[in-house]
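Can't attach files on this board, so I'm pasting raw text. These are the components:
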Amino acid sequence: MSETLIGKRIPKLDAPDKASGKTRYIHDLEVPGALHAKILRSAQVHARIVSIDTSAAKALAGVHAVITAADVPWQRPIGVAKDHLPLKTDRVRSLRDEVAAVAADSEEIAETALRLIRVQYEPLPVVATPDQALAPGAPLIHPEPHGADSSPHLKSAGAPVAFAGKPDNIAMTFEYAQGDVAKGEAESDFVVEDVFKLHYVTHCCMGISGVIAEFDPNGNLLLYSNTQVPFLHKREFAELLGIDPARIRIIQPPIGGGFGSKLDIYPFEPIVIFLAKITRRPVKMVFTREEEFLASPTRQPVLLKLRSGCRKDGALTFRTVETVHDNGAYTSWGATTPFVMMQTISSLYRVPHCQYLTRAVYTNNPYAGSFRGYGNLQATFAVEAHMDKLAEAVGMDGLAFRLKNAQDPGEVTPQGMHFKSCGFKDCLATAAARSEFLRKQAENRARWKDPNPVKRGVGIASMLHVGGGAKIYPSDGCGTILKIDDFAHVTLMTGASEIGQGSETVLSQLVCEELGLPLSAVTVVNNDTDITPWDVGVHASRTTFIAGNSAIGAAKKAKAKILAAAAAKAGVPENELSLQSGYIVRSGKEKLFELGKFLRGLHFSDRAELVMTTFYYEPPSKHQDKGFKGDVSAAYAWATQVCEIEVDTQTGIVRLLKVTGAHDVGRVLNRLGIEGQIEGGIVMGQGYALTEDLMVEGGVVKNPNFRDYKLVTAPEIPEMDVSFIETLDGEGPQGAKGVGEAPAICIAAAVANAIYNATGTRITALPFTPENVYRALHGAAKAPAWSAAA
Amino acid sequence: MPAGCDIAFTLNGVKRELNVPAGMSALEMLRDKLGLTGTKYGCGEGECGACTILVDGRSMNSCLLFAADCDGRELVTIEGVATTPRGERLRDAFVANGAVQCGFCTPGLMVQASSLIERQPCATETEIRRGIEGNLCRCTGYRKIIDAIATAATEKSHE
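---
Top answer:
Structure tokens for the assembled complex are below.
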């Protein structure tokens, strides 16, 4: 047998170029003749636009176009709820709102032109919190149809009525119920209730947002874009422009980080397309970092009330959850994260009775998008705090209490999620044992009254997340085209996007494993919608699972064809042949043909046709019904993380010392890649827990820069001990499950439990910055209250 | 338009003479005038390190340096670092240790690491961590970057 590639440490194929500064990101691309675009954003948080005067800007030398909503009466709304016009008509609803845009010979000229645009606003009352938004008589954020409002130019025939408006400020609601929570509560010996407050953070991709748009003389649109969802966005752009989606081609240059931020289209993209259409020139726009902070999406802030109970024997009885999400002024994916949150509420642990209600509420704040973990950080933060509190109430240790309620393989939860492979109990036991969780927890607790102001704490938390794609769309498919030339060189054309996570490497690895070839034999093409097969985008930790199965399918087809031809040529039974180390081998050892030579023969003999196509769609299973019952993924990922911290009670400074993680990943494919995903996720979770805080006051982002928005830096990272639980999922590629989001999910929850273990104080609001922790420890913090105008 | 400045400097070992606007940063000069796009714009205010270059052997944020102030100096960018034996060693270590994901911060880290191990060939883990604290990375969690720099620092035989 040739040596397997599975589980090995495979360096990323694109790493040498990236480390040499040779990789050309969108910011590095120069299209000859391109104009540079800049956007004028609102100077008001909430206001009526009285007038816009662009005449001075238009008169500036080097300016090719200045546009406002009046210039694009055919624009259509974008976003998940189609409540967002790229260029605002009569009203601005947040400080990021796009009022006008300029295309000029240079960025400097465009910048100068912006300063010459005069906008007159009439301020409206600012809705700064969901509480204010839900109060009786609150100003409405979307009071009337956009596009058919007071602006006369939008009343012209054929102008689309964009959005019907909303009679209240509720953007979206989710309700879910299983069993009977009143019965569950009646059966409970212990009941706890808390309100949790989760804050604003944002993605901070190092590669900031950008786009280049260009029309050819036939009206075909070429877009260089950082999108994570090229195929579905083609349709969105086509609807926006009223053109055939087939006339849109999206090329994704290497992407400087995604983390979910590029899952939606944002106004700057249509606006650049409008400018390209109007000027008939290529137009490029790249954000500044400040703009990235102000005008790219956030993780959704949530106020969450959780009531849970259990019996004396430790069995959970019920959970009642109500949440209010600050949706911001427009609806992007953030509003839909309750869909993921309810899975953790209902199915991370066995809970017979659950009730869940959430409302995403419009405010004049920045709007929330999709961000690694997708609501699960918030839900896990609350659920795992209550697992600790109930364990303490019952008098069980936190590990035994969790093991008692943890899911087993084969279970179908009341929500209808089917856990075919499930290493949850192994994750719990492994992380607890490797970190000596129980011993340390007892020791730390015994030191609560110790005079030393610096305390140690250890906390545990676990998570459940989709690991086999996500049935968000009617299909979760991904296609592959695989061709093999006469030197046994393979080109893998996949619908899966590379955003830094290493998909092109792991897909190559899976193909080479089937074909017995070295990784150097593969070229991956994954960034051009005119070439690559259809896919629903990189999200939901789905790429290795879905695109991996698709790539394996194509490689298997190629292998079958090659072996059939070899069997015929050598006159031996096909089932005795295999592909190993670049040879066609009989009985596992006898080299019959060198693969490259054999393929050359096939190509010249006209019988090769070594172009394989496959599509993988998630296996048939019961999709969720309207009550959210059913399966959301073909497989589920599990993890437990134990966090060890030090709290200085005199300063409130919390240091994360060590994270011991155990992850059910199905199977490790690329050990180097999976370690990188998990370490990066842990540190992102650390930032969410301890340092990151997008401060929004009255709709104004107070800290749109890296000086005041604190990302974790190298000196602060914890020691990381990561174990892999290999449950070999039956449907996964080589048994693997998705892992991209998992490692970021439990850190904040585990740190909260560790702070309690260190100090005896439970803090239910994030982030754990020195100021917030100090206040909480010294009785100066107000615990989050459930008012929410409910 | 303000008058430009005539400057002369060495860039990656080659003498250059240029006229630059007074307000232009070294980063803009490198990327927009000279086409050296390996040096990245990450924040424009010296907080992220993506634009790190060597100026007379010292690592600096090129976004905070005026192009005009490059007159008479010796500049080395990632394109220059990558072709030195130390740069090649670092590149191989970054690749082998999995220190690269999206890669946007990587050129700045490569330059910073090159400067670090030149100054401190026997840098400890703590010194490496402190040495790259001005470089932000959102993907990797830094662990593998630290390992890569330590690997390159210990493999001195190539130089």
